[in-house]
Design a protein that fits this description.
Number of helices of chain B: 0
Helix content of chain B: under 10%
Helix content of chain A: under 10%
Oligomer: heterodimer
Strand content of chain A: over 45%
Order of helices and strands of chain A: EEEEEEEEEEE
Radius of gyration of chain B: 14 Å
Strand content of chain B: over 45%
Distance between the termini of chain B: 41 Å
Shape of chain A: globular
Structural class of chain B: mainly beta
Largest sheet of chain B: 6 strands, mixed
Number of strands of chain A: 11
Shape of chain B: globular
Number of strands of chain B: 12
Structural class of chain A: mainly beta
């Protein structure tokens, strides 16, 4: 596609429910990032993939959060036993390069998760 | 831990006014610096970036930013704003020495330009 695509656009979950958020990066982009953006805050780093390898998961807030990118393209962020504090916009971003730190990130529009 | 501070949370300007948004970071080592913008209803997009060389960098739509290492600052400027500049602006920093590609973002500044 033309840009990074995320689905669903909105997700409402009951506390304790498991959710799965999907990210389709730009075709051919090697690197994929997940960020969490709470209301009124800037994005906070969660995890990073280079192709199918998860090279950095230091930002995942708890073991309830799990991300995968099994074929090096589409990625899924899974949150188990959701809590109210998980309510946020989850952003996915991709870049064509595999190693540069000064590159431009291409962001998706995000998934807004509300946990009731 | 590294932090990025954007002291102006909400700025209201009239068209043609000059703009300066502050950004300070707490880390003393070599950094890459970015400004991202989010227009209403749109995704985050890169406005400009600094990674080396001339500390005054120019971006899209007439924006520029100046890296002042001694002040740990990377302020965003535009001489004359337009109504279409209404958006949220985020400063972001990447530490070069960690080998990590994570960006640390500030909390954002909401700019409202009145016609």
């Amino acid at each position: 596609g033309a840009g990074v695509s995320q689905s669903p656009r909105y997700k409402v979950a009951k506390r304790g429910q498991d959710v799965a958020l999907r990210c389709d990066p730009i075709s051919g982009h090697v690197s994929l990032f997940w960020y969490q953006q709470a209301l009124g805050q800037g994005p906070e780093f969660l995890t990073y993939f280079q192709n199918e390898a998860q090279l950095d998961k230091s930002g995942l807030p708890s073991d309830r959060f799990f991300a995968e990118r099994p074929e090096g393209s589409v990625s899924t962020l899974k949150i188990q036993r959701t809590q109210q504090e998980d309510s946020a916009v989850y952003l996915c971003a991709s870049t064509p390069q595999g190693s540069a730190t000064n590159e431009k990130l291409f962001f998706g529009s995000g998934t807004q998760l509300s946990v009731l | 831990a590294q932090s990025v501070s954007q002291h102006n949370h909400h700025v209201i300007l009239s068209e043609a006014a000059s703009l300066e948004l502050g950004c300070n970071y707490s880390y003393g080592g070599t950094v890459n610096l970015f400004w991202y913008v989010q227009y209403p209803g749109q995704h985050l997009q890169l406005l400009l970036k600094y990674f080396s060389g001339d500390p005054l960098v120019k971006g899209i739509k007439g924006f520029e930013a100046e890296f002042i290492k001694s002040k740990f600052s990377f302020n965003l400027r535009k001489p004359s704003v337009q109504w279409s500049d209404t958006a949220e602006y985020f400063c972001a920093v990447n530490r070069m020495d960690t080998g990590r590609r994570a960006l640390t973002f500030g909390s954002g500044t909401r700019l409202q330009v009145q016609p």
